[in-house]
Design goal:
heterodimer; A: 10 residues; little secondary structure; B: 212 residues; two-stranded antiparallel ribbon
Chain lengths: 10, 212
């Protein structure tokens, strides 16, 4: 299972 | 970073420059929804609060600063500098109908029940629909200055370009962000009618006019 997104987008 | 995201960000940047240029050259914010612009300030402040605790890159840092600063500057132009040119009587969309559901949805559907994480989620949901007061205003007046349509086209292209970016990231980095993706699809979807008229009229050299 994937880690939660790290919010590296704008 | 990939080309789609870079082009998306540049398109976003361009949209802001076009809007400021429109306001300053025409010395008027006619046709621009103050409510939509106020929602963008809310979106940027809520999302980029992570400037205080998360470091991504120099690029990311300066873009965040720029988006917060420019959106506040646009509000200033509309509220003070060119206030008489803004007609609140056609900018009547009820923003509570957008903010309320965005708050509720972000409390239910988020990655982690933490304050800043919920703020991030809220900003994503709110951004998806923040353009509605502007589109509603366009619908009411039935026409728009050409420069305003360029602004909207660049702004719509920004989130549309994020879609191939997400597909690309899925394959190359195994990264998936369902909240951003679903909201981004909704956001792009809201522009479809506008894009249709933009491509069939404005880019053919005609004025942006909606059929009566």
């Amino acid at each position: 299972h994937r880690p939660p997104p790290k919010h590296d987008e704008l | 970073m990939n080309l789609f995201r870079l082009l998306g960000d540049l398109s976003h940047l361009a949209s802001i420059f076009i809007l400021i240029h429109k306001i300053q050259t025409t010395r008027s914010c006619r046709g621009i929804s103050f409510q939509t612009q106020a929602l963008y300030v809310t979106v940027f402040v809520a999302r980029y609060i992570d400037l205080f605790f998360r470091w991504i890159s120099l690029y990311n840092f300066f873009m965040k600063i720029f988006f917060i600063a420019s959106s506040v500057y646009i509000l200033y132009l509309m509220k003070y500098r060119y206030r008489p040119t803004h007609d609140p009587s056609i900018d009547t969309f009820k923003v509570e109908y957008l903010v309320g559901p965005a708050v509720v949805l972000s409390l239910i559907f988020n990655y982690k029940f933490e304050f800043t994480e919920i703020l991030w989620t809220f900003s994503i949901y709110l951004e998806a629909v923040a353009i509605l007061p502007q589109l509603f205003m366009l619908q009411r007046t039935g026409e728009a200055e050409t420069i305003t349509t360029h602004y909207l086209a660049a702004l719509g292209a920004y989130r549309a370009l994020y879609i191939p970016n997400w597909i690309y990231r899925y394959f190359t980095e195994d990264v998936v962000d369902p909240i951003a993706i679903v909201a981004g699809l909704v956001q792009t979807g809201l522009y479809l009618d506008f894009f249709y008229v933009y491509f069939t009229k404005v880019l053919q050299g005609q004025k942006f006019e909606l059929p009566a």
